[in-house]
Design a protein that fits this description.
single chain, 180 residues, alpha+beta, 4-stranded antiparallel sheet, 4 helices, RSE1/DDB1/CFT1, WD40/YVTN_repeat-like_dom_sf
Length: 180
C-alpha cells in the first residue's frame, strides 16, 4: 500500500516567473511556478487584468523554469527541472488549452528525492553530473571503482602499476576537486 497526499489548496507563493510567446499568437504570456503548480497567464487587453489560461500540477516540486525558442520557431518552449530528478520540455497547445510534454529526461538526484530508480550509488558531492553525461558517453571507470570486488581492484591496480590504496586516494582527490 502506498500513501499519496495532495493538499486541498493549491500553492500560492510564486517561486519563479518567466515570460514568452508560448502560443502561435503574437502575444506575451507569463508563466509562474509555485510549488508543484505551473500557471500560464496573460494580460487581458480590454479589461486590464491578468487572467489564467491554464494551470497544471506537475506532482513534483519545481526547482527551476526557463524558456527558450528553437531557431526558426515562432513560439517559446518551457524547460522545467523538478526535485524528482527530471528535466521536461513543455509546449503550450492553445487549441486544447493544455501543456504537452515534448521531452522528459532523467538527469539524476537533487532536492528532496535522493535517488533515481536504477541509480544505487549517488554522487557524494550532491549533484550527479556524470549520470547525465553517461547518457551520451560511457561512465568513467573511476566513478565506479569503489563498487568493484577486491579481485577486480587488484587486477586494475596491477595494470596501472599502482596500489589499490593509491588509486582510491587519487579518486578521492578528484571528487574533492569537483565538489568545490
Amino acid at each position: 500500500m502506498f500513501l499519496y497526499s495532495l493538499s486541498i489548496h493549491p500553492p500560492t507563493a510564486i517561486m519563479q516567473t518567466i515570460t514568452g510567446q508560448f502560443s502561435d499568437a503574437k502575444e506575451q504570456h507569463i508563466l509562474t511556478a509555485s510549488g508543484s503548480l505551473l500557471a500560464l497567464l496573460r494580460a487581458h487587453p480590454t479589461v486590464g487584468r491578468v487572467e489564467t489560461l491554464v494551470s497544471y500540477d506537475v506532482f513534483s516540486i519545481i526547482r527551476s523554469v526557463a524558456s527558450f525558442r528553437p531557431a526558426g520557431s515562432a513560439r517559446d518552449y518551457i524547460i522545467e527541472a523538478t526535485d524528482s530528478g527530471r528535466i521536461a520540455i513543455l509546449e503550450y497547445l492553445a487549441t486544447g488549452n493544455r501543456f504537452s510534454r515534448v521531452l522528459l529526461e532523467s538527469f539524476g538526484r537533487s532536492g528532496v528525492r535522493r535517488l533515481v530508480p536504477g541509480h544505487e550509488d549517488p554522487s557524494p558531492v550532491g549533484r550527479d553530473h556524470l549520470m547525465h553525461r553517461s547518457y551520451y558517453v560511457p561512465v568513467n571507470l573511476c566513478e565506479r571503482y569503489r563498487l568493484l570486488s577486491t579481485d577486480k581492484k587488484q587486477q586494475i591496480s596491477g595494470e596501472l602499476d599502482q596500489s589499490v590504496r593509491e588509486i582510491e586516494r587519487e579518486i578521492s582527490d578528484m571528487r574533492t576537486r569537483s565538489a568545490f
